[in-house]
Design brief:
Elements lengths: L1 H11 L49 H12 L4 H21 L20 H10 L1 H20 L1
Keywords: Membrane, Transmembrane, Transmembrane helix
């Protein structure tokens, strides 16, 4: 039995008599790296130029759509609706960040156009009234993407 615990401790690095494993993946700031003197035998790749078609393509977020549909079933129990509201607010916040929601606009128009809303505004709106603002976000997501990525 003690042999098994010694082996497990050795794997975890807890045993002073076990093998030492380096777990560091990044060099220390003071470490220096050796750079080879010979040039690479492979020719340099031509520089890549950005074109108008190189912007990322729009993709639907099916998790938000499923969450919206699941929220309709949560209307029976208010505790489940509150939990789904918090979860959907977090999801909308991170999704709006990936869409760069509101970045192209200097001023955020709360009562105006929804493409100017920033991620925190979307998250708070979904947290306050989950199903209505989640539906608005899901249906206007492509418009938000187009307005802020072009």
């Amino acid at each position: 039995m003690t042999r098994v615990t010694e082996v497990i401790r050795g794997w975890l690095g807890l045993c002073p008599h076990g093998p030492t494993h380096k777990t560091r993946t990044f060099p220390n700031p003071g470490d220096t790296c050796q750079v080879p003197d010979k040039p690479s035998p492979h020719p340099a790749a031509p520089p890549v130029t950005a074109t108008a078609d190189s912007r990322p393509a729009y993709q639907e977020n099916f998790l938000l759509i499923l969450l919206l549909l699941a929220g309709l079933f949560c209307l029976v129990d208010l505790k489940m609706l509150a939990i789904a509201g918090v979860f959907s607010a977090l999801l909308v916040y991170y999704d709006a960040q990936t869409l760069h929601a509101g970045e192209k606009f200097e001023k955020e128009s709360i009562l105006g156009d929804v493409v100017t809303w920033r991620p925190l505004t979307w998250a708070l709106a979904v947290l306050i009234i989950p199903l209505i603002f989640l539906a608005i976000y899901v249906f206007s997501r492509k418009e938000i993407f187009d307005a802020n990525s072009g």
